[in-house]
Write a structure and sequence with these properties.
By secondary structure, the chain is an alpha+beta fold. The protein is 33% helix and 25% strand. The strands form 6 sheets. The protein has a 7-stranded mixed beta sheet with strand order 6-7-8-9-10-5-11. The protein has a 5-stranded mixed beta sheet with strand order 1-2-3-12-4, with helices on one face. The radius of gyration is 28 Å and the shape is globular. It starts with a helix and ends in an 8-residue tail after the last helix.
Length: 595
């Protein structure tokens, strides 16, 4: 036995040494992409000066360029409204020194997933299908996701034009219930693109719609792309992620991506300005609704002074004109118009006088028999505080006197005066009117969750609420309150119920975004009569920027009832419609030329 161990031990050492040597060699090869490529180019085996058009801009693979001047010359050819990226820069300090006024070091980290150690996912997706891009309609869906995420969109002719399909791969996540594209990821096969001797690949533009309902979409997309490249026999997948994108970095590290000492360079342009220019003081404290407008003003060369970041206040100055704003509320809106919008009963009377269709409404008094009679007359009611915003204190679809008393008590916590309104079955339509013209139209849907067969409804709501908070900078969350309890009880459920896999339920009936609702653009579909009604309401109130809420059976049909007017509509909720651009154009006509 002793001799056996003496003989076996050297063999184990030899095997272990080979394994360690193999890993070290792979690490040396993969730490600096292009190190072997230089020798390959000298032998004429690899392509030179590789530039790939991605629709939103171009990727310039630095390791394929023979010198920095040629690389800079190519970067200077960046098209308007595009974002070109020089990737795999090994010596960024040297490249930056050659054109410091034109380029900057992108504040992103590079991460790598080694495919030779990657293990495929065995857990199947629920409620979504991950598949390859199949049509131009899918391309439109990708752009809707990009717009919702604040990303540069792909130009309209890209998917229909000639492109290298062999090196570019698009995967999309499609909602099984609605058919909508709710996520996307792009992959580039370096081997097919430029005969990469390292047999690498890269991941770009991972995006999930902020209002997607299913959890884990981003992870499924990353895994699908990794498994796709692994099947092709590639060695690794690289990606670039902003240094402060903690959620994305957490996902990549969970999937065993590791940091790499590789860098990206970009050109100084209007799209990239926030990464290289001195930021506005207190900019980071602004909410998404104020930040959207500040970004648009900065892009146009309009001076911005943030006067109270937490409240969303800022002053815009340009060409001798100065206007103070709170998000989309500006000094152009009069105090009278604000007071009309502030009181829902007054708003209803004003727009009714202008010819709009309004629901029956009464104010709750001491006479409970009158309250009971109103409920019996209409069968189903909406209860709301006479003054308030962001959906606080609103209960929808009340059918019993017991529920009505609870809803009235909830509304009185927001305002002493409470209104009862006849319920109109349909969809909640928000029309944003700027300068008495339609800027955007969107259907707002109440928050919903999808069961996985394992989790309690309270847990599902918590996950969905955290996603909504992350997507809106903390502006939207789903309250676990009496309204949620009532909505669940009507479906025979409660917060402790384990929801069966694939079942989708509504967790509260109010569709306000601040209460976790979602929004879906219908600007191109909305019926002209609905647009006309919203514009007439704005003129009746004499308010230049307003969100008009209607209940409709279908946004493409003319039937509606007026619900309320919001003097400070959240413009950031309506991408891809250019609401911020319309708002700035109202404040500073002709400023578009300053872009």
């Amino acid at each position: 036995m002793k001799k056996t161990r003496e003989i076996a031990l050297p063999r184990q050492r030899s095997k272990g040494t080979k394994a360690v040597t193999h890993r070290l060699n792979r690490l040396r090869t993969h730490t600096q992409p292009g190190r072997d490529a230089e020798g390959a180019r000298a032998a004429g085996e690899a392509k030179r000066d590789v530039v790939l058009d991605c629709g939103w801009g171009r990727l310039l693979f630095a390791q394929t360029f023979s010198d920095d001047e040629k690389l800079l010359s190519e970067l200077r050819e960046e098209a308007p409204s595009s974002r070109d990226i020089v990737f795999y820069v090994r010596d960024p300090h040297v490249l930056l020194s050659r054109a410091p006024q034109e380029i900057f070091l992108d504040p992103s980290h590079t991460y790598r997933l080694d495919l030779w150690t990657y293990r495929a996912n065995t857990r199947r997706t629920r409620g979504i299908t991950i598949r390859r891009l199949a049509s131009e309609a899918d391309g439109d869906g990708i752009n809707r996701v990009y717009a919702a995420c604040g990303m540069v969109q792909i130009r309209s002719d890209f998917f229909s034009s000639e492109r290298d399909d062999r090196s570019l791969t698009y995967f999309v996540a499609q909602d099984d219930a609605t058919g909508e594209i709710v996520g996307t990821v792009t992959g580039i096969d370096h081997q097919r693109l430029f005969d990469d001797p390292d047999r690498g690949a890269s991941l770009w533009c991972l995006a999930v719609h902020p209002q997607a309902r299913q959890p884990g979409i981003g992870e499924h997309l990353v895994r699908k792309l990794a498994e796709h490249f692994q099947a092709r026999g590639l060695s690794y997948v690289d990606l670039s992620v902003m240094h402060d994108n903690t959620l994305a970095i957490g996902l990549y590290e969970k999937l065993n991506f590791r940091r790499m000492p590789l860098f990206a360079i970009k050109r100084k342009n209007a799209i990239n300005e926030k990464f290289f220019a001195m930021p506005h003081q207190s900019y980071d404290a602004l909410n998404p609704y104020a930040r959207l407008i500040v970004d648009e003003a900065t892009r146009r060369g309009i001076h911005v002074e943030i006067t109270d970041a937490e409240g969303g206040f800022f002053r815009l100055s340009h060409g001798g004109r100065s206007i103070h704003c709170r998000e989309s509320l500006s000094e152009l809106t009069s105090g009278v118009a604000m007071s009309i919008c502030d009181d829902k009963a007054i708003t209803r009377r004003m727009v009714s006088a202008a010819g709009l269709v309004v629901p029956d409404q009464v104010e709750v008094g001491e006479d409970r028999e009158a309250v009971r009679a109103f409920l019996e007359e209409h069968g189903k009611l909406v209860v709301k505080p006479a003054r308030g915003e962001q959906g606080r204190g609103i209960s929808v679809g009340i059918t019993t006197m017991e529920a009505l008393e609870e809803a009235i008590a909830s509304a009185r916590q927001v305002c002493d005066r409470v209104l009862l309104e006849a319920f109109f079955e349909g969809e909640d339509l928000r029309l944003v009117i700027i300068d008495y013209m339609l800027a955007a139209a969107a259907v707002r849907l109440p928050p919903r969750v999808i069961g996985d067969g394992r989790s309690k409804i309270a847990s599902l709501i918590g996950k969905q609420s955290r996603r909504r908070e992350a997507a809106t900078g903390g502006e939207s969350r789903i309250p676990l309150d009496a309204e949620a309890d009532r909505c669940l009880a009507e479906q025979g459920l409660d917060l402790e119920t384990i929801l069966e896999e694939g079942r989708e339920i509504t967790v509260r009936k109010a569709a306000n975004l601040h209460a976790g609702g979602s929004i879906h653009d219908v600007t191109d579909l909305v019926h002209p009569d609905l647009v006309d009604a919203a514009c007439r309401a704005a003129r009746a109130i004499n308010i230049p920027v307003v969100g008009i809420d209607l209940m409709v059976r279908d946004p493409a049909e003319p039937d509606y009832v007026f619900i309320e007017a919001n003097e400070r509509p959240g413009l950031a909720n309506h991408e891809p419609q250019p609401t911020a651009s319309s708002f700035i154009e109202l404040l500073f006509p002709g400023s578009r030329t300053a872009v």
